């Protein structure tokens, strides 16, 4: 059964700090597609970036400078590092799994 889990929960950090968000997934698929979304209060989630176990993902322009994903297929984990934290980064972040078998 495919599943995704974000163990970090709520995090607090200071402006300018680096922060790493964590995501664990489970799937039997050979190629894994992970998508990250940002949700501001009273807004719908918006797509930020994607990372794949094979091939290259995409990142929306506004996130290219400070948001860096890493996918580790062996440990089935994904990390999203945010460099130089801004106040505007305060939000709920979601990772989503879309597995495909090739």
UniProtKB/TrEMBL annotation:
Q: Which GO terms describe its biological process?
A: adaptive immune response
> Which residue range or ranges hold the Ig-like domain?
2-102
Pfam families recorded for this chain? V-set
Q: Which UniProt keywords apply?
A: Adaptive immunity, Immunity, Immunoglobulin domain, Receptor, Signal, T cell receptor
The keyword Signal appears for this protein: yes
SMART domains noted in UniProt: IG, IGv
Sorted alphabetically, the Gene Ontology cellular component annotations on this record are: T cell receptor complex
User: Mind telling me what this protein is named?
Assistant: Ig-like domain-containing protein
Instruction: Tell me which species this is from.
Output: Cyprinus carpio carpio
